[in-house]
Amino acid sequence: MAGQAKSEQEILENSMHEDDPNANSSVLREEEAFTPRWGPSHKGAQELANLYSRGKRIQECISVGVSIVLFMANLLCIFYYIRWENLTTFLVAGLCGIVSADFMSGLAHWLADTWGSVDLPVIGKHFLRPFREHHIDPTSITRHDFVETNGDNFMITIPLLAHLLWGFISMPQTQLNKSFPYRCYLFLFAIFIALTNQIHKWSHTYFGLPKWVVTLQEWHVILPRKHHRYHHVAPHDTYYCITTGWLNYPLECISFWPALETIVTACTGSKPRQDDANWARKCS
Ligand SMILES: [Zn+2]
Ligand SMILES: [Zn+2]
Known about the structure:
single chain; about 280 residues; mainly alpha; 15 helices; about 0% strand; membrane; transmembrane helix; Lipid desaturase domain-containing protein
């Protein structure tokens, strides 16, 4: 099965310069230099960027605010309950939470990239639009501020963190001790879900990253820049996990995403990535 995985060299060669602003000019053919197929001047990218509304901005600000308050409250509870004897539990459960977050980042990313369209009510303009924009203008994310980058991911964590906090407040001590591994798992899962798009943004950032971020990328603790380029090869059909990226190669080896797409197409008749391809065709 491993032979079916795209070789790293093959993908990297194809993906080079997809989002590297320094490298772009050297690979464009002469005629393409006047009609770039990606970037801020792409007609589709401009149209998508203009769909970012005031209402969406308000939703993101509220999500970030509520989520941070819940994070702080849960963090205090974790500190209150953690002991030397349950430190290993915290680390193992936390690691499982991080791996789960990586998988969920891939699943959500795959769903948003592959199915649905920007024309769908509510979710189209608000939640699918950034995924379409990102493929035809991969550098746009580097121009988004903290709220625009992270608002949706922080929103997803609100029910998880509220559930976690309610348990800390309402459960008796004995029950909390028993469920401590689950609580550590959920806490780290929520943290890494919240940080996913920030980590993704760093993987597209070539200048001015703090040294500790570059170190975490180089050690592959978080998504490295070269690793994420594999996803940015048209038709953007692999390497969907964008939190740590640890699951990308194993999932590629077992053809996980194509298998899921075959099932969805068999059940619904929909073809994958049609809306994505339509936006990519809108030339500048
Ligand atoms: Zn994508
Ligand atoms: Zn990306």
